[in-house]
User: What shape does this take?
Amino acid sequence: MTDTTTRDDSADAAAVATPELEAVNERQKRRRGLWLALPAWVYLAVFFAIPLAIVFVYSFATRNRFGGTDLSGWNLDSYRALGGDLVRAVLVRSVVLAVITTVICLVISYPFAYFMATRSTRTRNLMLVMVMIPFWTNFLVRNYAWYVILGTDGPLSTITETVGLGETRFLFTQTAVVLGLVYGFLPFMILPLYASIERIDGRLLEASRDLYATGAQSFRRVLLPLSMPGIVAGSILVFIPSLGAYVTPVILGGAKTTLLGGYIVTQFLEARNWPFGAALSSVLMIIMLGATVVYFRKGGQTL
Amino acid sequence: MGGPSVTAAVELSGVTKRFGDVVAVDNIDLAIADGEFFAMLGPSGCGKTTTLRMIAGLEFPTEGSLQIFGDEMGTLPPNRRPVNTVFQNYALFPHMSVRENVSFGLRMQGMSKSETASRTSTLIELVQLGGMEKRKPDQLSGGQQQRVALARALVNEPKVLLLDEPLGALDLKLRQEMQDELKTLQRELGVSFVFVTHDQEEALTMSDRIAVMHEGRLLQVGSAEEIYERPSNRFVADFIGQTNLIDGTVADRDTIVLANGSKVAATTGHVAGTSVAMSLRPEAMHIGRPEDIPATHATSSLTGTVTEVNYLGVALVYRIAVDWIELEVRAPTVSEVDRLKPGETASVWWARETAQVVAD
Amino acid sequence: MAGENITEPRGATKWLLRANASFVYIFFYIPILVLIVFSFSDNRNVGVWGGFTLDWYRDFAESDNTREALWNSVQIGLVATVISVVLGTASALALERFKFRGRAVFDALLYLPIIIPDVTMAVMMLLFFSEAAELFGFSKGFATITLSHIAFSISFVSVVVRARLGGMNDRLEEAAMDLYATRWQAFRYVTLPLIMPGILGGGLLALTLSLDDVVITQFVTGPGWTTLPVYVFGLIRKGVTPLINAVSVVMLVASTILVVLSLIAQRIRGGDTV
Assistant: This one.
């Protein structure tokens, strides 16, 4: 906010209006907007856009014998390596687990969001806050909590043993990873679903019933189509981070259940194959961008 | 407006406002006198609010001169114009108390604390909000909010007060009360009030003069009576009050040929061949049986069939089908036996001077 | 707001919906409760109850490593929050109130950090700072972590402030100008107080995100520099001790305090949220 009164007091302020003056004014106004946006613009250009571009560039570079990266001899080797067995296994596993996570979240969240929409304003707000609190608490801590619960001799196992079901061994399995992901990302599904269901006029459902729709028909023909933007938004918001998840698989999945996120990290911090890691990141980014396009096409709005 | 006259409070000459390709206000000339209660009336989107916003400085004209008491305002920002605005829905600052709202303008002008305090108190008393100074806008009723908005503008002693649909958010009863209050206030203060409304009744009852706007153009400026009784064109005739518009063509100075070929007498005011409409107010017509038409009104009458009669207490509203049109006629209530019934043949006639001929 | 509430279904559906809702809340809160309980457990196994003790909290308080990591987290969080609040608020104002060249591109660029996965962002920052370190010769640590956190926090602040600005009646600014306020005064006395809840909310969100981040920080940190979550993550990978329970509970309490503060901030009255 650099300019205040100074520009207002320009000498030509009291001139008779002309299209030229209006254009000058319009330009000034635009410039003010640009100045306001400029710091963030520059910041994001330097610390986001350029890094993004570097990742793409790296994905075409070559890994040298010392684990470094030569920015020369550009090639598609890293992308070819995506076809390898291990990579394919990781990719498939990641997608499968991300899909399962998304479906479970949707199945739990839809009735929940619907129920929330039937409540009074006061209750809704309280319910919303109760969803927001775990959403805001530390992600790492939330995953770790499941580590404690599921661990050998942990509370869950103790309970199942006491009731005679024998000890449970969930920790370091894919089930545990899905559990952790659902736990972590459930609010991402609930919030957009709730936002879109809450907007629906209840009278529409009543009208459909009045027009001889059964409960199921009314759901399928009215509620479901109207809440579609929320379903799409929620699914994308759960699917994308699940696909790129790193912390959850490491804590709850152990060494055996490497997912895409963890695999990428490994390329940088352990295997030191940066070009390959960059290629994997690029793929993840492209999936993400594709999903975003779908999201906006479906008329979604931001969270 | 010829000859030198007293400087107008607000004068627009050739003012046009374009938003991209849309012409919101189209080449308007308008002079508002000092001390006048002036209404700008028109349907939504007619450019009346844009015109008001240009006077306030919230919008700058694309072209044209806009003067306030002889000073060119052109592209002067709102904070440097001697006018204040009562916004639609008031736009009271929700985070400030009544007192803070009212004193805002004075504080922004850097007026001394004591002066600010005393003028604020005076205005709060004037609009009868004493004792509510500490309340926030959302703790006030609609009528009280309206008064705060008034006080907040008037405390600055503007040379012209602009009001954008000031009564739009109030219920009917309150609206009527506030109409009287506004009128009284304006008379006491003696400053010009320029107010925008889409409610013709409000405009007719409150203002000294009315400007009717439509699609960015100024169609007619005049007193309530002038506008109601002598509309300058078809839109004004149709927009102000209820009327029957009968299409026809000018035959000569005193005759119009209607669409069905019948001739009626009227002061046409247009050259022969012009297509016009004749505006007949429902209450300006007499109704009876064909044999009741006075001989003097032979050429200012129409005959048709009653299709509907509605009882409104003091009046009866007849709908009468005449060939290609249906007329609405409002007549004093008569006993049921004397009433014309649907299906009966009925005639209407009118005094020649009440038929207004308007072009498109 | 259009229309009426959806009415609650009758019969079995009603009870299924209620059961599901209860399940969701139990699911959300049980792990948190379990964690809190076991942080007081006098047993070296993190999931086994061995009587009440405060030893783990004492260890936490006495450990130089955790104290230092905590202090690092707080410093980074505060600096990142302040900068991203300023940049994010300015960009929200620009986007909500002005048209300017490149607006659409800017808008899109602002959305990306929100939707991009952590890991990708981490990779981006790692490669960027490695290249930059080679060019300009600086060591990674406080600055690189803070710069990275700002890069994603600006967007979140901007979204929250924009929502607030969008809900604010923009006639209010005009009213202020009509009442002799300059553009700056209108901003200072009308706009700013009314969007303050959004700014506070956005700031607290930025702080929470900064205090939460593991992946990005892990990628851009340098030798000798660690934040609390990265430290804890390292401990978990090495082998857990109940000390982690205690540290976790401290982090839990900190983030809960932040949520509550932000909810209070959102509730502060002001602005016709039409």
About this structure: Chain B has a mean pLDDT of 91. Residues 172-189 of chain B form the longest helix (18 residues). The CA atoms of residues 56 and 356 of chain B lie 36 Å apart.
